[in-house]
Amino acid sequence: MVEGFVDGDSVFDLERDLSDYTMPNSAPKEFEYRPLSTDDDVVALRVFLEAEFPGRWLYDTMEKIRVEDDPGCVFGSFLGSKLVGFALIQHDGQKVPIGGAVWRGSLGEKWGALGPIGVADEYRGVGLGHGTLGSALEHLKGLGTRKCIIDWTTLEDFYGRHGFQISRRYKSSNLHLAD
């Protein structure tokens, strides 16, 4: 604080064992939930991210697909051929773990990580976020994932509905640098 830093947001990581996971509510049926698998899926993802989340999520997600050489590291929610929600998913065996997967050592064998996750603005409030999250978690569970982390969030109630509990807390500080 002496150097001019000011307190920022408090955030946390959440974890849960997926071995007994079941989605708390059914996902809205008009959407299809699945891992990305084709070049067309990747194009749909890029269009979606450029429109809805054009910053770091766009870069991190597209770079993850490139490094893994596998679009299946992204779980999508589709309305026809239009991608309207996504979740970046990771599990043991990934080439370059990022984000919350840096904690994979403490998660143990068969670790998993989820995030970022987002839904198109026009489809918020209809249960698509929970449908995307729940379907992605069921997919990770089907891959044998046990302990899963969702990192650096403030959405305890949202993820808590799926059984996630806080495992770590962070307090950020900010410094405004003059131009």
The CATH topology assignment is Aminopeptidase
Give the termini distance in whole angstroms.
20 Å
Portion in helices: 25-40%
Main β-sheet description: 7 strands, mixed
Query: In the CATH hierarchy, what is the architecture at level 2?
Result: 3-Layer(aba) Sandwich
Low-confidence stretches: none
Q: Total helix count?
A: 5
Query: Strand content of the residues, in percent?
Result: 25-35%
Q: Shape, please?
A: globular
Radius of gyration: 17 Å
Arithmetic mean pLDDT: 96
Order of strands, main sheet, comes to: 2-3-4-5-6-1-7
Oligomer: single chain
The count of domains is: 1
Structural class: alpha+beta
Strand count:
7
The CATH class: Alpha Beta
Please trace the helix and strand order, writing H or E for each element: EEHHEEHEHEHE
Describe the structure.
The chain has 179 residues and is α+β, with helices and mostly antiparallel strands. It is built from five helices and seven strands. The protein has helices at residues 39-52, 56-68, 104-107, 128-142, 156-160, and strands at 6-17, 32-35, 74-79, 82-91, 112-119, 147-153, 165-174. Strands 2-3-4-5-6-1-7 form a seven-stranded mixed β-sheet, with helices on both faces. The mean pLDDT is 96.
